[in-house]
Amino acid sequence: MVELPAGARIGELRVVLIDRLRRAGIEEAAIEADLLLGWVLNCDRAGLVLAAEQPLAEPLRQRLQAALKRRESREPLAYIMGEWEFWSLPFAVGPAVLIPRPETELLVEQALAFVRQLQRPPGGRYPWRILDLGTGSGILAVVLAREIASAQVVALDRSPAALAMARANARRHGVAEKITFVGSDWLSALAARPAFDLVVANPPYVCRSAMLTLQPEVREHEPHTALDGGRQGLDDIKIICRDLPAVLRPDGLLLLEIGWDQKTAAAELFNRNPAYRQTEIINDLAGLPRVLRCRKEEC
Ligand code: GLN
């Protein structure tokens, strides 16, 4: 393990970092070098440019060295920094939860479009009652609670460690009082009452055979319980499809993240179930199928 040079200027260290990350097989080496340096110096990219000629203080160099060592062994940057951005907000993350993916912002956009189009739930009821299934770090629950003034969110997860992290993120973003956290294996702990206007979920959907082909960061560090969706990747999606009608109000909306190759299988599953209508698949910015959107029948 070659030490980062002591007393080097920040601009020089940046060049060394990019080179080291590249050699470790990391594609976005320049972006990651800036994120790591910014994290150590507690500044943004503009701050890094301004600090380029300054030497890095020794305690910070040691911190950077330790982080680089972890990153070279392909631990995800998000876990090393303990934080990752979603919807332009910082979220605490750790190995108990999946790292937020930018694709999941599509789910938020769809949820907000639905809410804004209707203004409020039909029938004039307030508030918006939203359920986030498998909340993980809480990104969906927190962002929806922030964006929708009248939101009342239930965020559930079967992992106590995930719930603790989601709770901390809700506090950090000032929405803890709008979210109720529930320990539950999918819908098992919820009363069978059609209480929710909108349900969002990013369940595990990776096929078991594809788990081995994932990047080492994902395969070796992220929680398999949040990724592995069984033989066809549909095990959890099937449970949600089966059990959700009991808690979704008539005409309520489900937004479900799916894998890019599950368009047909997932749509078929919901089309076959008479509790749902208007099943559509929405593509992400890369043009890949990403979100299943459907309504519950009106009665
Ligand atoms: N999109 C994630 C990945 O490809 C999978 C997320 C999930 O299973 N919910 O790593």
From TrEMBL:
Reaction equations catalysed = L-glutaminyl-[peptide chain release factor] + S-adenosyl-L-methionine = N(5)-methyl-L-glutaminyl-[peptide chain release factor] + S-adenosyl-L-homocysteine + H(+)
* A biological process from GO: methylation
Per UniProt, S-adenosyl-L-methionine binds at G134, T135, G136, S137, G138, D157, W186, N202
Q: What is this protein called?
A: Release factor glutamine methyltransferase
Q: Which organism is it from?
A: Desulfurivibrio alkaliphilus (strain DSM 19089 / UNIQEM U267 / AHT2)
Boundaries of every Release factor glutamine methyltransferase N-terminal domain copy: 18-82
Enzyme Commission no: 2.1.1.297
Alphabetically sorted, this entry's keywords are: Methyltransferase, S-adenosyl-L-methionine, Transferase
* Segments forming domain Methyltransferase small: 129-207
Q: Give the encoding gene's name.
A: prmC
Summarizing the function annotation, the protein's role is: Methylates the class 1 translation termination release factors RF1/PrfA and RF2/PrfB on the glutamine residue of the universally conserved GGQ motif.
- Family as reported in the entry's similarity comment: Belongs to the protein N5-glutamine methyltransferase family. PrmC subfamily.
Q: Which domain of life is it from?
A: Bacteria
Sample GO molecular function, one term? nucleic acid binding
Keyword rRNA-binding on this protein? no
